[in-house]
Amino acid sequence: xxxxRPIIVGCxxxxxxxxxxxxxxxxxxxxxxxxxxxxxxxNFQLPQDWLLWDNLVAVVEARNYQLLLxxxxxxxxxxxxxxxxxxxxxxxxxxxxxxxxxWNSIAQGAVLIGLMMPPxxxxxxxLLQSIGLFKTMTGMVLIQVAYNLSFSTLLYxxxxxxxxxxxxxxxxxxxxxxxxxxxxVVMPLLKPVTVTNIxxxxxxxxxxxxxxxxxxxxxxxxxxxxxLFNFQSMYSSQYNLLFMNILLVTIPPLIVFIFFxxxxxxxxxxxxxxx
Amino acid sequence: xxxxxxxxxxxxxxxxxxxxxxVIYGVFFLLPTATSFWYSLTRWDLTTAEFIGLENFRQFxxxxxxxxxxxxxxxxxxxxxxxxxxxxxxxxVLLTSNIMARSFxxxxxxxxxxxxxxxxxxxxxxxxxxxxxxxxxxLDAIGIDGPGWLTDPALALxxxxxxxxxxxxxxxxxIFIAGLAAINPDYYEASRIDGATRLQxxxxxxxxxxxxxxxxxxxxxxxxxxxxxxxxWAMTRGGPGFSSDVLASVIYKQYQAGFYGLSTAGNxxxxxxxxxxxxxxxxxxxxxxxxx
Amino acid sequence: MSGVQxxxxxKSFGALEVIKGIDLDIRPGEFVVFVGPSGCGKSTLLRMIAxxxxxxxGLLTIGGKDVxxxxxxxxxxxxxxxxxxxxxxxxxxxxxxxxxxLAGRPKAEIESKVREAAExxxxxxxxxxxxxALSGGQRQRVAIxxxxxxxxxxxxxxxxLSNLDASxxxxxxxxxxxxxxxxxxxxxxxxxxxxxxxTMADKIVVLKGGEVxxxxxxxxxxxxxxxxxxxxxxxxxxxxxxxxxxxxxxGCKTYGIRPxxxxxxxxxxxxxxxxxxxxxxxADALVYFKVEGFxxxxxxxxxxxxxxxxxxxxxxxxxxxxxxxxx
Lengths: 275, 292, 327
Hints:
The structure holds three protein chains of three kinds. Chain B is mostly helical.
């Protein structure tokens, strides 16, 4: 009896999970390889011809290769934002964890506000406009940094707590300057949490829809999520291409997830428990 | 007695490490947040702002569809947060028990968290199509007349919340799994010797000891729920009518319509709502944690 | 070689004063051990000498130079930490040479100095390993190597042996003593273990509650403890100490007698008591007994002596080995 139970429960949950969590993805993949008329029936029938390549080409070529531009833009934004985020939040997390000063409670409050509060969008647009950063990639990068600093700082601060202070002091006695202690001794030891930060924030920024919608309108600046959103109205009759597009946006996080499963889980739970 | 003159010795942890982050955060997040309180009291076209007192707020609370947005925000947040907590805990208990294909199931449940919200929104919009969508086709096959998930004004918000649950429950599950893993298994063995049933173990041991994780899940999903925009926007754009509008979509719509002052007032209301709900909540949780 | 002087050194954390005015003169080349129970301020004092902790008031000189407010790296000190504090991401060679590389020394010089230090500590075959791949004793040596290449005027050790097992500890005690003999450098060593203090020190500083209780050579402290605290702290098993009526009867506030200065007999003696317990250590035996109206007493005796629990025993203190403290 005891040995049978896990199998029954397992089978049952497998079946339910398959229906609830796997079917939507199968649905996406299936529609993406169908022809236009087959896809418009929105059902689970297998396609007559597997048009994976044709649909892919059609989506990529659409609107004068807009998708490629979108991938390029999103990649650039993600790359720069995450790089800046990692360096700046590690520095803040380090000093917050190590030093007792009255600035700490201020920084702590700022982190908390950043985790909780939504941005004030229209005033931000006004500000960006007045300093010439509205509708620019630079502006978008700075916004992503500002909005995601709190979470990254949180991750770094709790991890730095596990690094013995003795190391800083040994380096100090060895004659290291403060920035040398940080960049040559502490930062290399933060590698696990840095990987977590890079992975989690890359996915968040790559998947971000709301902020580019507000701060980065305009055709030459399109991002991946905006393109997908626009395709929704454009391809209301071409579900095969719409779902090919969805498939394309789903693949990058899937690849990242396969390689960095552990770090993602660590980051999500660590950030979560403190949040 | 020799008293050395005290030169200020530099700390190895310099405060200027805060500076670059503080500048970016201050300029692009805190400053607009602070000025929003002023702009919410103005008629504003991004270049000139004319002070009109509380007119924007008066307008906000006199327009039924704007008030509807506020109420919907509360309903949506309460629903998603409640559902994610309950299902997250149940899934976590299931996925920490000794069952077949455990790690595969964990992966499957968690993966939607990482997928593009817009992609998920579009997919479910198609699957929830009233006549051709596979959900209603499947229901039809077993003799149930499926509802118009996103076309029925009474149901649209609930449908979106269910999709939110589908996408977000993996994170709640993950946090609960971490919380369950932190419980010393000795408690379960001790209680089994004391004759506790499985249900008693769940109620008397698991629930109280997993509380830190519960607090985290409730807090996180409430914040997410109150701020929620992209899924709703991808699935219904607040429709049909204004039946699934929330504060965040109202803010966007008023911005698009050029009512910048009104949009900002909506933003301020959202701040106030989040503060009003989360500050007492975290206080209460904090006190309870200290009590234990 | 440099001496170290502390003049009325004080340290407070907020309203709490943890170091209450310490004056100390450490001569060049001396091996000084700070010893005391946990919380006595010995580590704080060492960290103040290192410059890792600010001095609240007082004057600190190393080699005659006022370094009260100097940066740690400018004091001519090197420190071996309790945790060794080896940089986990660097090899043994990089760990030892880190200070030199920070100072911008040429590569060839760094390499030769690292080799030299490694040679003297038998670390040469391990130079390319990371600290993770080393045993406790090897890590300890790397930490010492890192200190040696700095060519310091003063070595500071913060409980360096507390993470090692007993046999390794004895061996490292010897190695550090040898190092001191070879280099002749001033060394300051913090420990809570009075055995380390007794076996290694030229001079022991006993600290209690942020104040110096007594300073002296190991045998000074053993034979002439200034206070009951020092008497109880130095020596194992600890001295039998009696206060209250028992001591007043002998004309003092605290009366002390070391276990090795108590002679036992089954016929006669100054005190009689009932044996509670006998510990046979091999060559010696420790006899625990209770003297009525006086208190518990331990005596060290030859293990061939036949004392059994529950038997009555007579004890007599060795003449001239008794201590009469006024506090």
